[in-house]
Model the fold of this input.
Amino acid sequence: MTTGLLLLTTALKILFILLVTVGAFAPMLVWAERRQSAMMQDRIGPHRAGIRLPAGAADAFRASVLPMRLAAAASGAVGALLLLLLAFAWAADDASWLPVSPLELTATGVGLLVLGGILDVGSKIHGMLADNGGNISLAGLLHPLADALKFIFKEDFVPPKADKLLHSLAPIITLMPAIAVFAVIPFSDVLYLEHWDAVVPRNGVVTGDVTAIPLQVANLNVGVLFLFAIAGTGIIGAAIGGYASDNKYSLIGGIRAASQMVSYEVALGLTIVPCFMIYDSLRLEAMATWQHDNGVWGICVLPITIAFVLFFTAAIGETKRIPFDLPEGESELVGGYLTEYSGMKFGMFFMSEFIEVVGLAAVATVIFFGGWDLPFVYRDGIDFPGVWDAQLASFVMGVEYNGAVEGIDATGIALAHWGVLALGVVGFLAKIVALIWFQLLTRWSLPRFRYDQMMQLCWKGLLPAALGNILFTGVVVLLGEGAMQMAVWSGTFVVVGSIVFFFLPALKRDPRVPAGAQPAAS
Amino acid sequence: MFAVYLPVFIMLGVATLVAVGMFTATSLAGPKNMTAEKAIPYESGSETTGANHIRMSIKFYLTAILFVVFDIEAVFLYPWAAMFRSLGWVGFVEMLLFIVILGVTLIYAWKKGALEWES
Done:
């Protein structure tokens, strides 16, 4: 690879990461968190910041609601009718009486249904805009942007007796590593530049002279070590921020933060050792590839299932968020080490916390949830197992069904290289969103720990458990293939069991809250 | 080597640039009007007494020492874990000894009360 190409691809990849983390996920996270906490407290939450439209806009929006609804209903009805025709034809196993081919019929039907859905959502949005006096508030999505602008134009206050240099360095040292950890996170499979619009074989072996571009900024052989080294730098930011502020609250917060973060750093580092033993690598890209090639996500292998529970607990402690937010517990320390910060410097601490949440979700996705791997998506396209879908697919695609379920030609949809990679990126981002949501759920569900309880959880709970898990993993790996199979089965059992018995019941509506209860205006 | 590590340094540079950029923006754009009241260290309204760099509990320093011990353990475990399959049972027993010795350290610290915060 030439240096020019290397620089160009690196710049593009860094731009992508910045757009996704700093540009999209962190502000969305701020919004989601405020919005949800407002709902829990019966407030409306962030919704006022918006774009003002000219007078008369409200009337125009109101007038457009009814026509859009009618169009949506018509489009949906016709689409459903076409799909019904297709179902009749499939039941009769005879497509000859259809005016168009089954593929065209499917495409038109699904397209009309989607169009109807879009029009319906659009009419609802227009109705909301009309009720809002023609102002676009986007449910308060612009609030984080307004917040960021406000942060920049606030007074930049430095306490006169503070250590000026350290006070200024602290937010920079905190924010820099939060962004830099994304350097080793792979967001999709390797891109073979010359084959971008061809179908690559399933095992990923491409012959000939090709330029392989890993879709991660740097494919380091010490990826995880880099991750922890950089993430550990964040501790210094919190500690010197508290130390330099010339304030007792700040000092206590800073010391608490440093002590807590070093403790959880140890636990965090030890909890994921079982993953390296099973994946046989410290490369994050190799971990994702292992999970893709073996067709099993790490979370479904029993030692890694245990590791995930420990890792996630330790990681929430490391990001200093509820229930482990002792360094900034506002009922005791006002703002903790942030007390004497204002303006964007405060915003930088705030932002790095949210970017850390995204980073943690990204790391957990790669190590435990297969990274860019999606079920049924292979390097040469989408391929479902089983026979029924093969029959359906061959009917719709107009291909003779030949009974084979192995090759991609009979049952699946071959995809070009770029399509598979794009699907991988989408899957990776979707998993990150799911894990962020899980972290927010934790934050909203648990009360704050006491400091001694939190430290004991780390040193007396997580640390011995992590060491025990390392030894357990060693035995499982050394016992050979049969033990690994057992581990996969039992891990899958534990994961499915905890989803069925813990998460699904938790999604049920609280019976004490009547359905359709409206939040009071704040 | 160059091709692998150059992007890392670019990423570190970009991350630092973002941080410094935000920092500079707020330093330049924000108003500055310091008053005598504003300069007082914030303590929920009461006057501050004594030095602001107060003494801290010895527990925090003990935690720091324990961190050094166990973080180095983690660093030794990483290369071992990555080579685990090729080392086999011999490597397992060797690392078992290492973990047991550090486990004894942890139990010692535990029994000595280094992990207790109540007193």
Notes: Chain B touches chain A through 67 residues (CB under 8 Å). The CA atoms of residues 43 and 49 of chain B lie 10 Å apart.
